[in-house]
Design a protein that fits this description.
By secondary structure, the protein is of the alpha+beta class. The chain has 20 helices and 29 strands. The chain is globular and about 90 Å long. It binds pterin cytosine dinucleotide.
Amino acid sequence: MTTRSLGEPVARREDPRLLSGQGRYVDDIGTGALEVAFVRSPHAHARIVDIDVTGALDVDGIVAIYTHEDLPGRVGEPLPLLIPHDALTHGRTPYPLAKDEVNHVGEPIVMVVATDRYVAEDACDRIQVEFDFLPPVVGIEVARDAEHLVHDDVPGNVAARLVQESGDARAAVAQAPHVLELDLEIERSASMPMEGKAVFARWDADDTSLRVYTSTQASTSVRAAVAAKLELPADRVEVVAPDVGGGFGVKIVHPWPEEILVPWAAVTLGREVKWTEDRREHFVSSAHERGQLQHVKVGFDSEGRLHGLDVTIWHDNGAYTPYGIIVPIITTTQLLGPYKPGAYRAECFSLYTNTVIVTPYRGAGRPQGCFAMERTMDAIADHLGLDRAVVRERNFIRPDEMPYDHGLVFQDGRPLIYDSGDYPASLDKLKKLIGWDEFDDYRAAARAEGRQVGIGMACYVEGTGVGPYEGGFVKVETDGSVVVATGLTTQGQGHQTAFAQIVADELGVPVEKVTVTTGDTRRFKYAVGTFASRAAVMSGNAVALAARNVREKALRIAGEALEADPRDLEIVDGIVQVKGTPGATVPLSTVAVLSNPLRYAFDEETQRATQFATPGDPEKPPVAEDDEPGLEGTDYYSPARSTFANGMHAAIVEIDPDTAEISILRYCVVHDCGTLINPRIVEGQIHGGVAQGVAGALYERMVYDDAGQLLNASFMDFLMPYATEVPRIEADHLETPSPLNPLGIKGAGEAGVIPGASVLASAIEDAEGFRISRMPISPSELYELRQRHERR
Ligand code: MCN
């Protein structure tokens, strides 16, 4: 038997290269290309009265300067609205270069192309833009008050009013024995990949073809957008995502203005053109997320069982809605976590503000939903004097109730139905892992030493593996190596390792024999992209199906060669053999040679053995009539609906009684993403996610002033945690395979981040004894809360 690879903690094969600085990112490509810099709006809300570029024209090295007026045809038109929705009654997308008006600081107005970035930046400084100021709308309350409007034609600044409803929640709450109301807030934050966005484009006039390298999470979508905007046949456009230094959601907004403008400039100028985002640009012109005010009204009985949940949410969607209202949709559906809410109603107002656009950031609306639900669970337990774990457990959907239909519509337009999970078993594991039942003793001992400690927990469910499809290509080469391609992109998730494991098992070859390519439209044209923790489910199953086809074909051809029934054959370590008769064998490399009428082999012996005809019958054609040549195959996987992974986190914190400094003593995770392809990768994903969850709880936030200036647009002021701030993470798994896909996989990529703010709020609340309703929280804010609480 070939050693099974699926489920093994195979070391990530991409790491030695990436960790030793051998990665090849967009900025490493196209040295010597013309470079782009943008004049971006310094104001949050203004009309553009005049743009005077004359001062920049005589800067040495300037090649071209473009404003909106210079962009022809579709290039200058507003960017597409990617995910329309009936509730999005007032969707607005930006122009690639602002036309007439700017709606946030950082919005691109002028594009300068020069011999290098320094020259381009110097020229930007000489361009004069005259503005007529408009009142900025900054912050959810200001937008909600609607004294001023972001877009003149959008009443109340309401881009969308979304209602999700199952049963009569208002009546259920009104009739419940107990009712609580909570006002909650999660502040804005953003993903900060190590590599910002970057685009490099090369136009080949002879071949009339365009190649675009971009740091993206969706190369096929960029290809479609570039082809459409530049009015080129898609076949003339290739898009390659080389190594991508992190994405976390921000690189899925396809296309970003720069992804259209840079290729267009390359075609127009007939030169190689490149743009690499700098960190400040990333802060002020990429995308943010989180940012919600929530009002929860919950009705429950004396046992803590939910009767009804009625939630109102005000969501800050920034200045435009290129991504529709996907974040509010996810919040309002996945807020429910592992619980049965009784009746449920969520109403969300997605509000325009004069700030950077809001699009999914790892977790994508779920951290906010989890915050609303988990704060509610703690409040109920507190109100009834019950154990917080007990209240959660009583409201869980039971394993025998799966599949569980919430009676709501999920983000893909299909019913919200959970496929699998054993929440009570997960909770049990978590309680044991952290020592939940023994914590009171620990607290008492700590208190005796003058230490203030608290414990908290939070549970979540994560819709993963969203459709519509993903594909895989698998080929056995004549040297016995296996190449795999899938169209989705990789930003650090370890796909090259995980997909190799899947294919190795399906084909019966050692995992080292398999290499995987992602995100290159030259290798695989049809794909959706890497987001919503979908790659493992979608491409994982697609490459498995493609490999199964190849295996079947290999056994058929080998059956001919060995004069055996394919059903009696197996593949072990890359050798096809008759089960139980190890003497009769043919290597897969030879099968690959046999599969091609033009039989070229790497070694002479194989060449001699295979060049004339099938060994069994010299008269037989080398390829069966209904077979295509080559030991290769492509297949697609399209799910019936999404899989729902789940997890539970618990943390113990210690808080300084004098300074309110918060230390995380323990952080435990129990996670269920179905069949584990690679536990080491999944744990890495959980660690990265927890780091971002802790960041969102204690450190990271976007601080705007009333004028719409981002006050902390640098790593001096935006507190990204170092390894020193991220606790040691103790993780355990539960594997309840999804019945929805052949491999039983559910996604894992966002898991770690979702409950971060909730679990730490729960633990801090437990330590302090007063309610925590707003995250993130700094020591000084906690200190102030303490003072206020003591004064009461
Ligand atoms: N995996 C596994 N077994 C499972 C499920 C997943 O071994 N049952 C592995 C997969 O093979 C893959 C990794 O875990 O190598 C994540 O898989 P999946 O959950 O399918 O998530 P995606 O690959 O679709 O990645 C997207 C997800 C999202 S939405 C964000 S945001 C995010 C994240 O992944 N951005 C990341 N993780 C990131 N990790 C890095 N390093 N950089 C980012 O930008």
